[in-house]
Design goal:
The chain is α/β, with parallel strands linked by helices. Helix 5 packs across helix 10. The longest helix is centred in the N-terminal third of the chain and has 16 residues. The mean pLDDT is about 90.
Length: about 300
């Protein structure tokens, strides 16, 4: 890959993706072999929105590579609270670290940040925009379970505001995959994302119900309805809880169906799914460690030891 920054999944070719996933598999097989590779490296964690998995897995990934992290902390305890611009914050943080992981509520924030610094910026989620490192671990999970070609993948839930959906849909255009998007009309894929997918020659269909397409799916990627993204509370209440699966729902799916979720979940996957072999979402979260180690290795390859 050797990209200066990772801002969007559209940057990634099939070769880029496979290089990261192959390296992640190497790391997964023998993590101790990578334990001292980046002893002098420092990774800055700049999260302007809450995070559990992304923040902790990047922190763990850097430390398992032998490096350290420095954490901006919450917005309330930072100079952002005093009115400091994102550009100024990034310029300052650049002097403290060899790479920056940035999560921000504004779409386009990671791209903006990358224009002001010379160290790699990794977009850890920019509003309803993109989340490319999540996509890499999603693809790793799919590859480990089913491979990445000749698949039918259903993506269900909040397709309008779901940045993990947008990134994953873009990345899947590199593979022989049929994409099925299942959502209420009000949460369809944004027009811009649909346009990009059509331009890429993606095989896609849109549905409002899961029942008709479930039997043909190899992967079902469920997302929560993101209350925090809705400009109108009444719009959220109109669709909340509308798309929910449980063990009974999955009786009509393939026995080897992989059920995935970027987490956190609210009530869109019932707890009785957790014990089924189809449930892959906790393994998916754990895959964030080797995949983000591999990604950091790509982007930090020039850090002196």
């Amino acid at each position: 890959m050797r990209k200066e920054h990772l801002i969007t999944a559209t940057q990634l070719s099939r070769a880029d993706i496979e290089a990261v996933l192959d390296r992640a598999a190497e790391i997964d097989a023998d993590p101790s072999a990578w334990a001292e590779k980046y002893e002098t490296a420092v990774l800055a964690l700049c999260f302007f929105e809450p995070s559990t998995r992304t923040k902790m897995s990047f922190d763990t990934a850097m430390k398992r590579l032998g490096g350290t992290t420095t954490d901006m902390g919450g917005v309330e305890s930072s100079s952002v609270k005093k009115g400091e611009s994102l550009a100024d914050t990034m310029r300052v943080v650049e002097g403290y670290a060899d790479a920056i992981v940035l999560r921000h509520p504004s779409e386009g924030a990671a791209q903006l940040a990358s224009e002001f610094v010379d160290v790699p910026v990794i977009n850890a989620g920019d509003g309803a925009g993109q989340h490319p490192s999540q996509t890499l671990l999603d693809l790793y999970t799919i590859r480990e379970h089913t491979g990445l070609d000749d698949l039918s993948i259903g993506i269900m839930g909040d397709l309008k505001y779901g940045r993990t959906v947008h990134s994953l849909a873009n990345a899947l255009t590199n593979f022989d995959v049929r994409q099925h998007f299942i959502s209420p009309e009000s949460l369809r894929l944004p027009r811009s994302v649909r346009f990009d997918l059509h331009e890429s020659g993606a095989q896609l269909r849109e549905h409002t119900e899961l029942d008709s397409v479930l039997p043909e799916l190899d992967v079902l990627y469920v997302t929560r309805i993101q209350r925090e993204r809705f400009p109108d509370e009444s719009e959220y209440r109109a669709v909340a809880g509308e798309y929910r699966i449980d063990a009974k729902t999955l009786e009509d799916g393939k026995s080897d169906l992989a059920v995935m979720h970027p987490l956190p979940r609210v009530d869109e996957i019932a707890p009785d799914v957790d014990t089924l072999e189809q449930a892959q979402y906790f393994e998916q979260a754990h895959n964030g460690i080797p995949v983000r180690m591999a990604l950091l290795d790509e982007l930090l390859g020039g850090v002196p030891q």
